[in-house]
Amino acid sequence: MIDTHMHADARSGEDFEKMFLAGIDTAITCSYYPYKIPDEIILRNHLNRILELDTSRAKEHGLDLKVALGIHPTNSNINPEMIFEELYKWIESKQIVAIGEIGLEDLTDSEIEIFKRQLDIADETRSKVIIHTPRKNKKEVLKVILDILPQHLSENQAVIDHINTSVVNEVIDRECMLGLTVQPQKMDKFEAISILDEYGFDKFLLNSDISNKPSDPLSVPKTVRELEKQGYQDNEIKRVASLNAEKFFNL
Ligand SMILES: [Zn+2]
Predict the structure, then answer these.
(1) Fewer Cβ atoms within 10 A, N terminus or C terminus of the chain?
(2) Could you tell me the distance, in angstroms and rounded to a whole number, from the CA of residue 104 to the centre of ligand 1?
(3) How far apart are CA 203 and CA 64, in angstroms?
């Protein structure tokens, strides 16, 4: 199984061990700095720590941790140029599997500017992007994302994440992959399964988004087991449990 979106820097080795024992072989950890950022040097150091330290911490517990780096919309209050330069290096050296998570939260000018630049970098370097959608005003912010995205990057290079029943209709006909985040206070496994049941398994990726907020490191295996219990076909379950992610991120 692959957990396609998590935040390893906020989690313990015990979580990685639980995930590995529950059948998660690979996870993708994404950028997010949970505190107020005084400047871009702090963010760069944080991102380098994810790359160097969290990958080896996960490996100690058997988990193959892949990395997505970029500027999270809530971290947009910095001069981004230094991070953009680093992004080119990380992509060139194949240290990251995607630029992410990026996206929009409060629709500020700097968020929008940084989002567009990161989409342009992805287009230029043929990279994949993981796009965050917020808890609040999800529909409104998603509309802006869907307006900006195709002007900068081919939709099939993007996964739009944290999709739920309230917005799935807005994105299902786009060419993007769609992330289903099964997380306490966000979406439970039954809501995720209702989406898969209605729209099929081809466009979706599963993730836990474990972070410093209420989280369940086992939400992906619990959802996969529930699908098995409910009698969905093995080849369908496999797509959403790992194959779609392997194909999309070239894992
Ligand atoms: Zn996240």
Answers:
(1) C
(2) 12
(3) 23
User: Can you tell me the distance from the alpha carbon of 90 to that of 69, in angstroms, rounded to the nearest whole number?
Assistant: 8
If one counts the domains in the chain, the total is 1
Give 134-155 pLDDT, tens digit per residue: 999 999 999 999 999 999 999 9
The strand pairing partners of 100, in sequence order, are 130
Cα atoms in the Cβ-side hemisphere of radius 13 Å centred on 72 = 22
What's the Rg (C-alpha) of the chain? 17
Residues with CB under 5 A from ligand 1 (ion): 209
The dihedrals phi and psi of 232, each to the nearest 5 degrees, come to -65, 155
Q: Show the tokens assigned to 144.
A: 């802006």
Quote the pLDDT of residue 23. 98
Q: Are 32 and 100 in contact (CB under 8 A)?
A: no
**CB–CB of 198/221 below 8 Å?**
no
Which range marks the domain in which residue 167 is found? Answer: 2-249
CA 159 / ligand 1 centre spacing (Å): 12
pTM to 2 decimal places:
0.97
Question: Which CATH number goes with the domain that contains 37?
Answer: 3.20.20.140
In this structure, what DSSP letter does residue 169 have? H
What does each C-alpha distance from 234 to 20, 28, 248 come to in angstroms? 21, 23, 20
Distance CA 107, CA 80 (A): 17
CA angle 97, 103, 108 (to 5 degrees): 150
Cβ(142)–Cβ(160) under 8 Å?
Answer: yes
For residue 136 the two structure tokens come to 């609040």
Token readout for 81 is 């140029």
Query: What spacing in Å lies between the alpha carbon of 6 and ligand 1's midpoint?
Result: 6
